[in-house]
Design a protein that fits this description.
By secondary structure, this protein is α/β, with parallel strands linked by helices. The strands form five sheets. A six-stranded mixed sheet has the order 3-4-2-1-5-6, with no helix packed on it. α6 (192-206) packs across α7 and α17 packs across α20 (421-434). The longest helix has 24 residues, at 321-344. It is globular. The protein starts with a helix and ends with a helix. It binds adenosine-5'-triphosphate. Adenosine-5'-triphosphate binds at residues 150-151, 162, 165-167, 170, 186, 188-194, 473, 476, 507-508, 610, 612, 640.
Length: 660
């Protein structure tokens, strides 16, 4: 297949009829060659189904195989379709309808499967296989050795796909319909991120053309996280998915200031949407003068009453603000047109209407009655002018809340304003009032418990015609506005009817570590069940030490004797000191954004979310808790990053909630 694609690519220019066709074809073929690139560490298949001559149940749309056919025979399942030189399938894509049985068939419901075979593959080498004769009632479930080996393998480098071992409860989410929005609540390591990424790949397979146009977007908490997951979709053959933080997604202006938490909280509050709406629409004023305009030959006049009627009518229709202004302009031009028709008995030409639309007196009427405004301009005016803010926020924000967001020393112009990250949500909200947003086909939102209501609204504006997958864990909420209940978030996201589905089994964190982290749950004030781990291996040590730096170096040295990654996590303000100590000991620790790989990464506690390391060393839990208002939630996140071993080092007493 690769050879064919490469040959086509090489001869593409000569077969295309014209330069434009040649370029389009070239791009398509280059994409095809890239999609087919070989990765010697990823085998072409990981499973096999021997089907009885029985109908396959379940949705039968969009696959390469005929709909509702009685299928029998043997199919290999892999990351992509592979066909032989005659176009006959050798390997079926894991997303094809027939492959569904590989993930969902059970002894109780064999779905036409006689034997399910899993292949164990290490570094591209076939090392084992495992058969389940479902027709004879054999089923391994989570006792599968190949599954156990996969989840217990030492972690190195970025996240990998889980296509070979997707579990039934995960598969149900992965294969939910495109039109279905869903919210997944799951404890750390239950595979939420994995599910979201595989769902994106599944939807792209099933609705390729539609989603290529409308787009699929993955939203994650920060760049370190996005870097960590970046390779998963390309490994599944999906190269065109946009991955972004929410700040980058909505960032129309650079961030050059930081707000105090109090101001951030007000700016992220959904009441700000109403304040902005009022501030915007209060700009409309009723025309006070008639319009007089000349076309060179005649002078035309539109009365004050007629102008007022235009503005009132358009306002009542509730358009976006900028569209409303243009609609009002067009209506005034048609009033002029009608006068011209009455006078000459025929319609003036299109050019006449265009010229009148741009005429200075008409624009002046609009500038008075329906002034043009940019999103930045609207927010700028509101934050620099306490009186304007007071009018727009009357009965919505308290005087104290208003004082928290108004600038003490405003910049002179919107262009020179020093915007904060929280201002971005206000500017985006303003943009949503002024202009319509294009809708994305599907949005996956990871670590969604930290989205503020205003951030949710920003996403809602981008998915008015699309669906979303919301992934999160209420216990890991660390933002001041963190969700405590998913129904609220879903309402702000404009998907109030989306179901909340739990994921219950943990694949990352060993049981002993989960038990320790679970002790924090009662103090986190969230109503969710404790995490349950599938893993019985792993090690946990908690040590009181005299000198944290020396102990950290010693612990990291011990950890380096094992294969797999090491994450040293501490409160943000302690990170520099720890990095320096590890460097001095010759360990060459790397930072999260380092371009070079290293075995030891130093991780500030606030950036640990969503990441995992084979061996995690957590330094001074009390300092992590003390560093921020939701410090206990942060500690819960930090403690649940370990795949094989967790070492906790402390000098101060452990937080009471952890001691239990
Ligand atoms: N079915 C599976 N088979 C093999 N590995 C799995 C499976 N599901 C999840 N994992 C692995 O478990 C680990 C945790 O998965 P993931 O990061 O998706 O969990 P999460 O729920 O998003 O965690 P967190 O809440 O901490 O962000 C990853 O290494 C992932 O590859």
């Amino acid at each position: 297949m690769r050879l064919r694609a490469e040959q086509l690519y090489a001869s593409g220019a000569s077969v295309a009829g014209d330069p434009f066709a040649a370029e389009t074809l070239g791009i398509a073929l280059a994409r095809r060659v890239a999609e087919l690139a070989d990765n010697p560490r990823t085998p072409l298949f990981f499973g096999r189904l021997d089907l009885l001559d029985a109908p396959i149940r379940g949705p039968q749309t969009g696959g390469a195989l005929p709909v509702d056919e009685t299928l029998g025979g043997r199919f290999h399942i892999g990351r992509r379709h592979v066909t032989d030189e005659h176009g006959e399938p050798l390997v079926l894509d894991w997303r094809a309808p027939v492959s569904r049985a590989f993930y969902r068939a059970s002894a109780r419901d064999p779905q036409g499967v006689q034997i399910r075979r899993r292949f164990g593959i290490v570094e591209g080498q076939l090392t084992s296989f495992e058969d389940e004769h479902l027709d004879r009632g054999e089923e391994l479930g989570t006792a599968s050795r190949i599954l156990t080996e996969e989840i217990e393998r030492p972690r190195v480098g970025p996240m990998r796909d889980i296509v070979a071992t997707i579990q039934p409860e995960q598969d149900e989410l992965v294969r939910a319909d495109l039109d279905t929005s869903v919210c997944v609540q799951g404890a750390p390591g239950t595979g939420k991120t994995a599910v979201g990424l595989h769902r994106a790949a599944y939807l792209l397979y099933l609705h390729r053309e539609r989603l290529r146009r409308a787009g699929v977007l993955i939203v994650g908490p920060n760049q370190a996280f996005l870097g960590y997951i970046a390779a998963v979709l390309p490994a599944l053959g999906e190269l065109e998915v946009q991955q972004s933080t929410i700040e980058d997604l909505i960032g129309r202006v650079p961030v050059r200031a930081t707000d105090p938490v109090k101001a951030q909280v007000v700016k992220h509050d959904p009441r700000m949407a109403e304040v902005l709406r009022r501030a915007l629409w209060s700009r409309l004023t009723r025309p006070e003068e008639p319009l007089q305009v000349s076309d060179g030959a005649y002078r035309w006049r539109v009365s004050v009453e007629a102008l007022r009627r235009v503005v009132d009518d358009v306002w009542r229709e509730g358009p976006h603000y900028a569209l409303g202004r243009e609609r009002a302009r067009a209506r005034i031009v048609s009033l002029l047109q009608r006068q011209a028709e009455a006078k000459s008995g025929e319609s003036p030409p299109e050019t006449w209407a265009r010229k009148m639309g741009k005429a200075k007196p008409l624009t002046e009427v609009l500038d008075g009655a329906w002034p043009a405004v940019t999103p930045e301009g609207l927010v700028f005016d509101l934050l620099r002018d306490a009186e304007l803010l007071a009018r727009a926020a009357d009965g919505i924000l308290t005087a104290d809340e208003q004082a928290a967001i108004v600038w003490p020393k405003p910049a002179k112009t919107a262009r020179s304003a020093k915007w904060s990250a929280a201002d971005l949500v206000l500017i985006d909200e303003a943009a949503g009032l002024i202009e319509r947003q294009a809708s994305v086909g599907h949005i996956v939102l990871d670590e969604a418990q930290d989205l503020s209501p205003m951030q949710c609204r920003a996403i809602a504006r981008r998915s008015t015609h699309g669906s979303i997958t919301l992934l999160g864990d209420l216990a890991q909420g660390t933002a001041p506005w963190a969700a405590t209940d998913w129904t609220e978030s879903l309402r702000h996201l404009g998907k109030p009817n989306a179901g909340v589905v739990p994921l219950s089994v943990g694949f990352r964190v060993p049981d002993a570590v989960v038990t320790l982290a679970n002790r924090l749950l009662p103090a986190l004030a969230v109503n969710i069940p404790p995490a349950v781990s599938l893993r019985r291996d792993g090690e946990l040590t908690v040590q009181a030490v005299d000198d944290l730096t020396t102990a950290t170096v010693a612990e990291a040295k011990t950890a380096m004797a094992y294969p797999g990654s090491i994450g040293v996590i501490a409160a943000d303000h302690q990170i520099d000191q720890i990095r320096a100590a590890l460097e001095l000991a010759g360990m060459q620790p790397v930072d999260l954004d380092s371009p070079v790989a290293g075995q030891v990464t130093v991780v500030p506690a606030t950036l640990a979310k969503g990441l995992e390391y084979d061996h995690v060393i957590v330094i001074e839990p009390a300092a992590i808790v003390a560093a921020e208002p939701r410090g206990l939630h942060r500690l819960y996140v930090v403690l649940t990053r370990a795949v094989s071993r967790l070492s906790v080092l402390h000098r101060e007493p452990l937080p009471a909630a952890l001691v239990g």
